Amino acid sequence: xxxxxxxxxxxxxxxxxxxxxxxxxxxxxxxxxxxxxxxxxxxxxxxxxxxxxxxxxxxxxxxxxxxxxxxxxxxxxxxxxxxxxxxxxxxxxxxxxxxxxxxxxxxxxxxxxxxxxxxxxxxxxxxxxxxxxxxxxxxxxxxxxxxxxxxxxxxxxxxxxxxxxxxxxxxxxxxxxxxxxxxxxxxxxxxxxxxxxxxxxxxxxxxxxxxxxxxxxxxxxxxxxxxxxxxxxxxxxxxxxxxxxxxxxxxxxxxxxxxxxxxxxxxxxxxxxxxxxxxxxxxxxxxxxxxxxxxxxxxxxxxxxxxxxxxxxxxxxxxxxxxxxxxxxxxxxxxxxxxxxxxxxxxxxxxxxxxxxxxxxxxxxxxxxxxxxxxxxxxxxxxxxx
Length: 386
What we know:
Layout: E1 3-8, E2 12-13, E3 18-27, E4 36-44, H1 52-65, E5 73-79, E6 83-91, H2 97-105, H3 115-127, E7 135-143, H4 151-165, E8 167-168, E9 171-174, H5 180-189, E10 194-197, H6 202-214, E11 217-219, E12 223-228, E13 233-241, E14 245-246, E15 248-252, E16 255-259, E17 263-264, E18 269-277, E19 285-295, E20 298-308, H7 312-315, H8 320-336, H9 340-350, H10 356-380
Parallel strand pairs: 2-20, 4-5, 4-7, 7-8, 7-9, 9-10
Antiparallel strand pairs: 1-3, 3-18, 5-6, 11-17, 12-16, 12-19, 13-14, 13-18, 15-16, 19-20
Helix pairs in contact: 1-6, 3-4, 4-5, 8-9, 8-10, 9-10
């Protein structure tokens, strides 16, 4: 059973406009039905992938085949200067295995890197497949290179693929020279994940882990609906778990819709946000936001509640843990994007509100991100709660 828990950093607010930090935690529980997987493997076969990386790509794809069930669909797309459909989307139970393995073994590395062509072509292989509430769809993107297309364009395309066709795109960069801004944009805009792979030997694990993980989807393409009290504004929404990133969300009148990664068995998700309250009269208890999780017929509910007061003692009551988690998420996002200066500034400003003891871990996070390059930036986005 899915459960929603809400918390605020201050249960009492003054009778004037003020900021409230809130946390929404989702416990997905267990699957109610089996999931059919639609998977497109979208791999860079440019010249820089020659050698061990290409060998590991072939091995990784063949390894992935072992995770598939008869009703799953799989396609393989390679890209260098242009994209090629190596294996059209085919039901696994109907696939000629020998022909598929021969096509994979025939993949070679050469040419340049057109990531966008690969991404669009991989999407096309999935777009005509049958959909339904029991279907979870993924494009697994792997590249070690750079594309001239701006990251913002990649984010727009990935976001549209997710919203229109329910496809999430875990995106992995391998080595030290790939375009981390592009990989990050694709993974986060599609409610997927961006991943750093240090060695060619990591490729097989990336493919296998992601394909196996799809089988644990509790609910595909979930979102939160927040019905706000009159005058309340939501300003900043971040995903803290499963990976720190800016959330995709939209607002219309007094409703905010926050798009989430697919819910996986026992994998907690957490959203943190900042809301601005209007000037309420003292003594009034307000549902700042009614929260509903929408996912394939589900409608689990929660409420973010505050009380307006002018009593100094009541206003002094805080839940520092929520406030620290909020600033931690902002710091990790900035550090994970390589903006160390912004991360350090956020920590410095937080000392005006929170105890230094609660911020010491964040200083360590920022220092490691400063010294560790792309790999440590990726690690920074993965929160490990006690």
